[in-house]
Amino acid sequence: MFVISYFLLALATVLHYVLYTYMLIVIARALLSWVSPDPYNPIVRFLYSVTEPALFRIRRLLPFDMGGLDFTPMILILLLIFLDQFAVPTLTRIAYLLGL
């Protein structure tokens, strides 16, 4: 049973780092939107290709126009923080309950 608990603990740690890294990528994308970056730059293309699917889904769910301001990165960051604060401790708690 300890193997499953160590697996869940490792999964929680990896999930935490993935969510944190994605949050940094979303912040970098939001900062890039303040300037006019070269759309052919590989870093800019990477940031847009990684974040656009999630941001597009959030934009589709928003029922109204925000007056030209794009609040979707902030909403996505709040969702990532919620997942980090909910899923990671839950997995860690389950790992400890299984007998770590």
User: How large is the share of residues in beta strands?
Assistant: under 5%
So what's the oligomer here? single chain
Per DSSP E runs of 2 or more residues, the count of β-strands stands at 0
Helix content: over 70%
Sequence of secondary-structure elements: HHH
Give start-end ranges of low-pLDDT stretches.
none
Morphology call: elongated
**Sheet having the most strands:** none
Domain module count: 1
Mean pLDDT: 92
User: How far is the N terminus from the C terminus?
Assistant: 8 Å
Sheet/helix structural class: mainly alpha
Write down the Rg.
17 Å
The number of helical runs is 3
Structural features:
mainly alpha, 77% helix, 100 residues
Describe the protein in words.
- It is a single chain.
- By secondary structure, the protein is mainly alpha-helical.
- The chain has one domain (2-97).
- Helices cover 77% and strands 0% of the residues.
- It has helices at residues 2-32, 42-61, 72-97.
- Helix 1 (2-32) crosses helix 2, helix 1 packs antiparallel against helix 3 and helix 2 packs across helix 3.
- It starts with a helix and ends with a helix.
